[in-house]
Design a protein that fits this description.
The chain is mostly beta strands and 751 residues long. The protein has a single domain, classed as Maltoporin, Chain A (Beta Barrel). It is 8% helix and 49% strand. It is built from seven helices and 34 strands.
């Protein structure tokens, strides 16, 4: 049994925290409170509602009853949309009875709001995964969203790609922007990680594919994911859960919430530890987050957010293809010898205020500050201190103009950051050297302005137009010049327009089409020391996307179908002069194409098998299928080769029997029928695989729920994740084995 790592030392930040940032954040919240108090003296009107059909009884139901209703409906895989025409036929919004929070929409409200986007967007409610899985990784959340490929690596780390985004990012995350409660969680230069995300802490998750993330000013190829927390007004007053499973997995989670007149509070925390399937993959994570809301009047609310994370994780590392398939538990020898780890201490604070300025018009604004300290002994001993801060404002105006409905969204987003990075030698047992081998101060600035307008030129069809302007700068000061000056600066000014049509065919069925541009500014990690390419020479990754699709939700059938084609200039791709290491050096390719088909659907195959009545039992099929066709387009080196890093076909399916008493059980499968390449030269592949599991549980929406889940029950040795390069060798250490047979169980109780 390997010993657990000692508690890592805490190093002082290389620079004092910018007090002016925190002062600005507090002032923003105070301004929201003062402005709200003043507005409370005016003739207040409720915040404009969204297009959602609901009865008063359902709108005023208790939290547990809402959950019970949700459990009787099919597991959602698409955005719920129920378009409703006004008495004038102009599609005016309906006010929702009993709206709890102005700053945080309910699940039904956000589903209806995102149904106004003429492109593929998905809302994943917590009822889809929290009561029936360990809910510890982003894969648990996004398993049944087509178009997303989540490749587990070790612990909670995964490679995430939306429509082929970020395939060249072998470590950490790029090309998908992560938000928490609408507030950025990536660093300002575009880098990201999942370790600070606790899936059990959120009410729902919003997924915006590609340029459909315009509403948050997102500027990445893959789009954006927003994790949204409950509030004290819709969360269980007290909740607790315990989970345990294979490979030394243990998890405890609890939350409290409450209200007192205009005040509400929600706080949640979790502790998790696991030895891991592979050697040298022990990890521990302690996380807490929450929010505090003040309802200043009927049309003004301000909310403060906070979060802390303390994460320790050993890294087993990538191995060769043969090792991954024949000895999947073994770690890379260098990782064990030098005790490779990724350890994070982080905290954040933020504020968001919403004001209903007039019927149909609402303003949202706020600010945030994120602090992250990364201690990362790998090939070198990395000591990185991140500080990110910014502000945002968004105006929504929904009204009838000359008999036609028009909905305008306009916003600004400022996201700046500072990275103080130092790299030392790393010796046996994660021994930190005394002299920095490299050190720089990296500064990033991003200012995005955007608008999107939906004009219903006929009652059921909207013309949607929009654009985004991004001004970004990257500046590096190299503090060690013995190997030359790696510093420099660059700036970008980019426009990304969009046009589309949204057709409400009936009250449960929509179709959409759009053409959009996106732009992704390179991060500081994009450069090639081997090819002597500085980060200032890396170009912006630009894409034009054509998309058409349909989505709908009916009692016994749901669907989400999208076809898309991305034509990309200067895609950020991985090249490596030492293919055995997987050390990715990112440069621009010339032209590439990402295109594919995304199919998500759920269907009641049988009903009333042993229980009839208004809520019969049912046998429910939930399926997500993704076709990926990613290739070079006449590249000078690789011609029309297939882009490495993603399977051509990916299938995730579940057949679940649901009884009105709350009992559910059934099998599930994950299938990659064709191996995919790991190099641009198309010489080395992964291996195809199919794994299956079983699930049994109870959740009737009441205080108690429980589950037991078996994964990879046939104990298949397979490759779950792979790094990429330009030209691989048979001995290239690029592969991450998937976990073997595992069983997890958990109980949850809420008061």
């Amino acid at each position: 049994m390997e010993s657990h790592p000692q508690r890592r030392p805490v190093y002082a930040s290389a620079a004092a925290r910018p007090r002016t940032i925190l002062t600005t954040l507090v002032a923003a919240g105070a301004l929201g409170a003062l402005g709200g108090t003043a507005l409370a003296q005016s003739n207040a009107v409720p915040l404009p509602g969204l297009v959602v059909e609901t009865s008063k009884a359902k709108a005023k139901a208790k939290s547990a009853k809402r959950r019970a209703v949700q459990k009787q409906t099919p597991a959602p895989v698409v955005t719920e949309q129920r378009p409703q025409s006004s008495p004038t036929g102009a599609g005016a919004p309906i006010l929702i009875e009993g709206r709890n929070s102005l700053t945080v929409p309910t699940t039904a409200e956000i589903q209806a709001e995102l149904a106004r986007i003429p492109g593929s967007v998905v809302v994943v409610p917590d009822t889809a995964y929290k009561q029936s899985t360990p809910a510890t990784t982003i894969k648990d959340v996004l398993d049944y969203v087509p178009g997303i490929f989540v490749q587990p690596k070790w612990g909670e780390d995964s490679r995430l790609s939306i429509r082929g985004s970020g395939l060249s990012r072998n470590f950490h995350l790029r090309s998908v922007q992560i938000f928490q409660d609408g507030i950025p969680r990536n660093t300002a230069d575009g880098y990201g990680d999942f370790q600070e995300i606790d899936p059990s802490a959120y009410r729902y998750v919003e997924v915006y594919k590609g340029a459909n993330a315009l509403r948050y000013g997102a500027n990445s190829l893959g789009g954006a994911i927003n994790f949204v927390s409950p509030t004290g007004r819709d969360a269980d007053r007290i909740a607790a859960s315990a989970d345990a499973g294979s490979f030394g997995f243990h998890r405890l989670q609890s939350s409290i919430s409450g209200t007192n007149g205009p005040l509400d509070l929600f706080v949640t925390g979790s502790w998790q530890e696991q030895d891991g399937f592979r050697d040298h993959s022990w990890g521990e994570a302690t996380r807490a987050s929450g929010n505090f809301g003040i309802r200043l009047s009927e049309d003004v609310e301000t909310r403060f957010y906070f979060g802390v994370s303390d994460i320790m994780q050993r890294i087993p590392g990538s191995v060769t293809r043969s090792q991954a398939l024949n000895d999947p538990k073994a770690a890379a020898s260098i990782n064990v010898t030098n005790d490779w780890q990724r350890n994070i201490d982080a905290w954040r604070v933020a504020n968001k205020t919403t004001i209903a300025l007039a019927p149909g018009t609402a303003l949202e604004f706020g600010g945030f500050y994120n602090d992250r300290h990364l201690i990362h002994p790998i090939f070198q001993y990395l000591d990185y201190q991140y500080e990110d801060y910014g502000g945002f404002a968004r105006l929504v105006d929904d009204r009838i103009v000359s008999g036609y409905r028009n909905r305008l969204i306009a916003g600004l987003q400022l996201h700046n950051g500072r990275l103080d990075n130092k790299q030392f030698s790393n010796g046996p047992g994660a021994t930190k050297g005394t002299t920095p081998l490299s050190s720089s101060l990296d500064r990033s600035e991003n200012l995005a302005a955007y608008f999107e307008n939906s004009f219903y030129f006929v009652p059921d069809v909207a013309l949607v137009t929009g654009t985004q302007f991004l001004h970004a700068t990257r500046d590096r000061t190299d503090r060690i010049l013995t190997n030359g000056d790696q510093g420099g600066s660059t700036d970008f000014n980019l426009w990304s327009p969009k046009i589309g049509l949204l057709w409400d065919i009936d009250r449960t069925w929509q179709a959409f089409v759009n053409v959009s541009r996106s732009a992704e500014v390179p991060s500081f990690g994009e450069s090639s020391t081997a090819a002597s390419i500085a980060f200032t020479d890396i170009k912006t990754q630009r894409a034009t996307t054509y998309e058409i699709g349909t989505r709908g939700r009916r009692p016994d059938f749901t669907w989400d179908l999208a076809l898309y084609r991305m034509e990309i200039d200067n895609e950020l791709m991985c090249y490596d002069t030492a293919p055995s290491t997987g050390n990715c050096q990112v440069v621009n390719a010339d032209k590439t194409v990402h295109q594919g088909i995304e199919i998500g659907f759920g269907a009641a195959l049988m009903k009333g098998l042993v229980a009839s009545g208004p809520s019969p039992d049912r046998l429910w099929l939930n399926l997500a299928y993704t076709l990926n066709d990613f290739h070079y387009d006449g590249d000078a080196d690789f011609g029309d080769n297939i882009l490495p890093g993603a399977p051509r076909h990916f299938v995730r399916a579940e057949l679940l029997y649901k009884h009105p008493s709350g009992i559910f059980f059934g099998p599930n499968t994950e299938w990659v029928p064709e191996a995919y390449y790991v190099d641009s030269a198309n010489t080395l592949k992964t291996a195809s695989y199919a794994i299956w599991g079983l699930k049994l549980g109870f959740d009737n929406g009441g205080p108690f729920s429980a589950y037991i889940e078996g994964r990879n029950l046939s104990d298949v040795a397979y490759i779950a994740s792979a790094s990429i390069t330009d030209l691989a060798a048979p001995t290239s250490a690029l592969f991450e084995p998937g976990s073997g047979r595992a069983v997890y169980a958990g109980v949850k109780y809420r008061w």
